[in-house]
């Protein structure tokens, strides 16, 4: 099933981004694996909790956890050949975010959720893994920075809900939603688009 395949691809992308952050922070093998695994499956766990799926799929079945672990180990061993680590982290994170936004919304709809709940749960699924990753390595989460992050996730999950509501095959929503969310995130990184902050703030030394 396409949603399962994309789910595994999303886990790989997010786990790789988490593991790369762990390598960049000079964590040991265990630390890199912990950050990679929690980044890879964290969003899915939050999604399942919100949908009342107990225990969460990633904690009840071995494939998701295994995929995240193997990905983390590969990144730990192969990171010397990966150039531009930070850029790679951002691209992997964007791809994983798009995948989880669309698959999260699809699973929410399949579980009987409304279009609104699908949009919100899909976006939550997409951003949760990155938030957990950043908290583990003591970084301000991307979600709370000026970068466009939650907006692309909402776009991807909304596309899925709209396609589902229009009666088109669900696989179309999965693909288009993933492309839309990932594309907007990558475009925002490239063009340095961000949301505005409050004007006339005092200087940092005045706070």
Automatic annotation (TrEMBL):
Keyword list (alphabetical) reads: Cell membrane, Membrane, Transmembrane, Transmembrane helix
Residues in coiled coil: none
**Record InterPro entries:** Gly_transporter
The way it spans or sits in the membrane comes to: Multi-pass membrane protein
A Pfam family reported for this protein in Swiss-Prot or TrEMBL: Gly_transporter
Where does the chain cross the membrane?
A: 6-23, 30-50, 62-82, 89-109, 172-190
Q: Where is the Glycine transporter domain?
A: 5-79, 91-163
Q: Where in the cell is it found?
A: Cell membrane
Family affiliation: Belongs to the UPF0126 family.
| Protein name per its UniProtKB record | Trimeric intracellular cation channel family protein
